[in-house]
Design a protein that fits this description.
The chain is α/β, with parallel strands linked by helices. The longest helix is centred in the C-terminal third of the chain and has 19 residues. Helix 6 packs parallel to helix 8. It has a single domain, classed as Alpha-Beta Barrel (TIM Barrel), CATH 3.20.20. Strand 5, helix 6 and strand 6 form a beta-alpha-beta unit. The chain is globular, with a radius of gyration of 19 Å. The protein has eleven helices and eight strands.
Length: about 240
């Protein structure tokens, strides 16, 4: 497997043991998490967990998400999270739970020089609206939820490509291919010019199969079936 990837890999998760292991992997350029992943991992103290992650990852970018629903509280939480470290990107959902745009939050934080990761983007129009409210001199990410777009039966590649083109015109920022479902999404992300892809530890482990000979892969699969049947003691 080549390690000369054009698309950077950000590890996605909230298990501190996994994060510590992935922090030792030179292929991992950054980290992301969200409240849902943290809840699944059993995180009890949001700030304590965030501080632990920042200490573990050694200066690589980490996206930490606000969870308030009102504009002023989103801004307050964003300012608080940014103070945890210079490598923190504050994750802002594209809307609140009422479907109202968070453009004012994005504008307020980026105008202060706070790096943001605008997340849960599903359409090019959403990306356009956010770019109109971003401060151009501040680093930022736009997380396009390609996996969930595909779950709706829509090809995410054109949306990714258009968003990448928008940022090229804007002059800064990077697009994240979020919520991938398979390793081939990494190939699609690279071919789309997408700068970053988030991947779980399980998907990252599968990257070793990139470029694998398909005849060999077929044989290994047949052997797996045979060995599992033998080990299970099946008879007919």
């Amino acid at each position: 497997m080549t390690t000369e990837f054009l698309t950077k890999i950000f590890a996605d998760g909230a298990n501190l043991t996994d994060i510590a292991l992935l922090a030792q992997d030179h292929l991992i350029s950054g980290f992301t998490t969200n409240p849902t992943l943290m809840k699944l991992a059993g995180v009890q103290d949001y700030l304590s967990f965030s501080r632990d992650v920042i200490e573990i990852i050694g200066g690589r970018p980490i996206s930490l998400e606000v969870f308030a629903d009102e504009t002023s509280e989103m801004i307050r939480q964003g300012e608080l999270l940014q103070k945890l470290g210079d490598n923190v990107f504050v994750k802002i959902p594209i809307t609140n739970t009422k479907g109202e745009s968070t453009e004012r939050v994005v504008h307020a934080l980026s105008s202060q020089g706070i790096k943001v990761n605008v997340t849960a983007i599903f359409t090019v129009d959403q990306a356009k609206k956010i770019l109109e409210n971003l401060h151009g001199n501040t680093d930022f990410y736009l997380s396009v939820f390609a996996g969930r777009i595909a779950d709706a039966g829509v090809n995410p590649v054109p949306i990714i490509k258009q968003t990448v083109a928008l940022l090229s015109e804007f002059g800064s920022g990077e697009v994240i291919w979020a919520s991938p479902r398979e390793v081939y999404n990494f190939v699609e992300a690279q071919n789309s010019g997408c700068q970053i892809i988030t991947m779980t530890r399980e998907l990252i482990a599968k990257l070793s199969g990139l470029g694998k000979d398909l005849d060999l892969f077929s044989l290994e699969t047949v052997k797996m079936f045979a060995n599992d049947a033998l080990n299970a003691g099946y008879i007919l």
